[in-house]
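Design request, tokens follow.
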């Protein structure tokens, strides 16, 4: 009987388990909320692509978020529920994203409409410290993104197709950190397209 209860409990925990956002992005414990702004740089001119506001749970996961474009128009909102995450959009049905823990430091994240039509699915592979090792798309592009770190900093993202052909390589480096080692200004440069992006991060502790 005890073994059966253990298996049920394990199944329930596995169904809703998810890695902490703070672990994935080297953010300190105790962060309450944050605003993230993504800019594209062209001819030394910065253009705001989107702004994302996030509220965190006490254990470092995203409780809810809101993403808008440069004009303030809503692109996406998310809300963490007990067993899933709801993603809402201005021009289509909400997505209900289920996160299921798998062996060997993996999570399967699949999003569905209310009618159970699958919209996307990806397998997240994690390093022992909770950072993302790779993301395998299982539904749309079938691309795999590989993440590389050095001294607790992300420095490169490589994207390949399902035949292992290189799609892009993006160099990543942090220009400014705060006293808690959160990266406040991150630069990303595509090796293939030469596109350059700045990510500004404003945490509230």
């Amino acid at each position: 009987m005890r073994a059966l209860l253990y298996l049920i409990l394990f199944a329930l925990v596995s169904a809703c388990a998810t890695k902490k956002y703070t672990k994935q992005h080297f953010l300190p414990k105790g962060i309450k909320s944050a605003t993230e702004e993504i800019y594209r740089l062209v001819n030394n001119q910065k253009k705001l692509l989107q702004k994302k506001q996030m509220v965190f749970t006490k254990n470092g996961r995203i409780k809810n978020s809101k993403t808008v474009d440069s004009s303030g128009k809503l692109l996406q909102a998310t809300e963490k529920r007990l067993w899933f995450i709801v993603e809402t959009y201005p021009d289509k049905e909400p997505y209900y994203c289920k996160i299921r823990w798998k062996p060997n430091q993996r999570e399967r994240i699949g999003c569905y409409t209310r009618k159970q039509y699958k919209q996307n699915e990806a397998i997240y592979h994690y390093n022992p410290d909770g950072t993302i090792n790779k993301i395998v798309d299982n539904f749309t592009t079938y691309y795999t993104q590989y993440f590389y770190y050095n001294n607790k900093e992300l420095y490169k993202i490589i994207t390949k197709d399902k035949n292992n052909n290189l799609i892009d390589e993006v160099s990543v480096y942090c220009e400014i950190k705060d006293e808690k080692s959160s990266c406040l200004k991150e630069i990303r440069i595509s090796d293939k397209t030469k596109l350059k992006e700045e990510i500004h991060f404003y945490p509230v502790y």
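Comment from the thread starter after seeing the answer: thanks! Confidence is low (pLDDT under 50) at residues 1-16.
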